[in-house]
Amino acid sequence: MHYLANLYLINFKNHDFLSLEFSPKVNALVGQNGAGKTNVLDAVHYLSMSKSYLNPLDRQNIRLNQGFFSIQGKWVHESEDHTVVCSFKPGTKKIMKRNKVVYDKMSEHIGLFPVVFISPYDGDLIAEGSEFRRKWLDGILSQIDRKYLEDIIQFQRVLEQRNALLKQIAHGAAKREDLLIWNPSFTELGARIHERRTSFVEEFSPIFLENYQEIGAEEEEPTIRYRSDFQKGAFDTLLLQNEQRDLYVQHSTVGVQKDELLFTLNENPVKKFGSQGQQKSFILALRLAQYHYLHKYSGKKPVLLLDDIFDKLDRSRVQKIIDLVSKDTFGQVIITDTDQARVQALLAPCVDDFRIFKLPLQEI
Questions:
Q1: Which residues pair with 101 in a beta bridge?
Q2: Beta pairing class for 26-30 and 354-358
Q3: What is the pLDDT of residues 83-110, one digit of tens each?
Q4: 214-221 long-range contacts, CB within 8 A, separation 24+
Q5: How far, in Å, CA of 331 to CA of 78, rounded?
Q6: What angle do CA 204, 207, 213 make, to 5 degrees?
Q7: Residue among 117, 93, 126 at smallest CA distance from 264
Q8: Which of 337, 327, 332 is closest to 354 using CA atoms?
Q9: Which of 9, 15, 7 is nearest to 63 (CA)?
Q10: Can you say whether the dihedral through the CA atoms of 332, 335, 340, 343 is positive or negative?
Q11: Cα-flanking dihedrals φ and ψ of residue 220, to 5°?
């Protein structure tokens, strides 16, 4: 069993102090908009991924007019307790510690306590640019593949160095030959990242298809395809062919930082041709497949965070989700909603162990 037993917040977003004791199975946070329900889910994400799901700037997650925030929770895995604390004070380094031991690198924590966050903002996976889809893919692989996480971090450093050098060359502060120093690492790291992303899409696609058929329509044919510059032949040759363009625009124009995931439905782009309902089913299937993929390769059932989805989905999809999460396939679930009566009516018939918390705090 893998779950979050409790959560304590100090000066986190709109919460001055909040203490919650969770059920290992299903929990619901109810309250009006602005009560801080989503902020609780974001705090759980911090304790898993060492960062916010919603706002990458730590300082903007401090309660107004306060000098720091602190998040503490107790993860339980196979009857072992792990107390995790994440705290931040402007002007100092963010601190992440487990069982009172401070991490030297935040990346050391990634993957120990997996979560999957399903949010109204997930539409960005379809609507926005390729960067959103790459980050989503990288976030999954980083939780199960330590080498991949290290490669991604190192590649980002090499990319930044190469881009800085391109600017220096353009301003006469460096020589063109200096690029030869960074090109081999840029190519080698990119090749490893491309190989891992390729195998991920091959492994993930059947899981995604199965989940889409459960919540969507069986006659529809959704697909995920991976497109990369490394599919165009020898990358070192491609890099040299684009060197002049790189120098002109002063950044690297080819490489895995340009990779794309193509989402299609019946061979047509979901973004352009998918109905609103089809897009919601597509995204929900992506997230549920993400859950099953992480479970399969980490050996842990991620904590499932469902934010305000009952207001965003039609009744049939909501019922399918409740039916799914009530099965033993899923572990701990934390839901947010504005309607206490609706949550009670949905959960009571099919979930044995659930707790409802009303924010401002009042356990029901």
A1: 98
A2: parallel
A3: 999 999 999 999 999 999 999 999 999 9
A4: 214/285, 214/288, 214/320, 214/324, 215/281, 215/284, 215/285, 215/288, 215/317, 215/320, 215/321, 215/324, 216/278, 216/281, 216/282, 216/285, 217/281, 220/265, 220/266, 220/278, 221/265, 221/266, 221/267
A5: 13
A6: 135
A7: 126
A8: 332
A9: 15
A10: negative
A11: -85, 150
pTM of the model: 0.92
- Unique residue bearing structure tokens 């572990």: 331
d(CA 221, CA 206): 12
CA distance 261 to 264: 10
The band of 348, judged by pLDDT with boundaries at 50, 70 and 90, is confident
Do 31 and 338 meet the contact criterion of CB atoms below 8 Å apart? yes
Terminal-residue alpha carbon distance, the chain: 25
Give dist(CA 185, CA 187) in Å, integer: 5
| Secondary structure (DSSP) of 187-253 | HHHHHHHHHHHHHHHHHHHHHHHHHHHHHS-TT--EEEEEE-GGGGS-HHHHHHHTHHHHHHHTS--
The span from the CA of 262 to the CA of 226, in Å, is 6
Rounded alpha-carbon distances, angstroms, from residue 73 to 85, 96, 97, 140, 249? 7, 12, 11, 22, 46
